[in-house]
Amino acid sequence: MSKRMIDAFAAHGVPGVYAFNGTMPTEARPADLDILDDWCAAGHHVGNHTHQHISLNWLDTDTYIKDIDASERILRRWIDAAPTRYFRYAFAMEGDTVDKTREVQAHLTRTGFLSSPVTLWFWDAQFMAAHNRAVSLGDHEAVRWLEDKLVDTAVDQVRNQAAATAAALGRSPAHILLVHGTAVAGATLDRILGRLASHGVLFVTSEEAMADPANVIGPQLTTRRFRNFSQKWAELSGTTVADAPPAVLDDLDNTAYIEGMSFNELLGRAMTDWGTRIPFTPVASDFH
Ligand SMILES: [Zn+2]
């Protein structure tokens, strides 16, 4: 999967992509980290995304900060090799109170991390669950339908979200797009990047994107909701992003149906599992 993503980035000239992963799974499988060497050898980079990947909304600040530091200890070799020390909030959630956000931001500043926002996304994690089911069932028709839908959804969402930001700000800043490292991303990224390029999208480094104050001093909106910067800019200007979340998500759970394997059921079980390691209170409605 990461090889297919690396190849797609190379084919479309996408430079210096930062990988953000929670590091807790590497406690049991340290060899998973080897993939980061291949990633960096291809010219890409690694940032900090917390150890346990638990939203700041659901934790106290001290625990969250310990989680940032724990991940840095594991990833230091790769983080030190990157041109910039970037931190990406777990779930891109920056905290449900201004005080939490400020305390974490102060820690990032002390430790030399710059928060790397997500300004665009296309709900590819939801496609991942359906795609995995379709592959496991050998349902080739469903696999193809899901991949085609993901490509269309990615292009539509980039257009809609960039348009919302442009309307809110009166100009079009550089954007930072999230793509999860999943099998469905590996299968579709080449087509997604090709379609974006055909619409005139130019790919720049994260450092170039972060030269824009819209990304460094982002939308000053404290919310516990799962929102990227484009959605926050839209909300601050009293508008919404068209078709976000996309209506197609409603069709995914019935595609290649397997009992107990819907996206929400998988996410719920993952949250329960995290809750056995550390006391926290996930709030499912944060994702709506
Ligand atoms: Zn994440």
Automatic annotation (TrEMBL):
Tagged with keyword Metal-binding: yes
Domain of life: Bacteria
Signal sequence residues: none
InterPro entries recorded: Glyco_hydro/deAcase_b/a-brl, NODB_dom, Polysacc_deacetylase_ArnD
Domain (NodB homology): residue spans on this chain: 1-204
UniProt entry keywords in alphabetical sequence: Hydrolase, Metal-binding
Pfam family, one: Polysacc_deac_1
UniProt-recorded name of the protein: NodB homology domain-containing protein
Species assigned in the record: Pseudonocardia saturnea
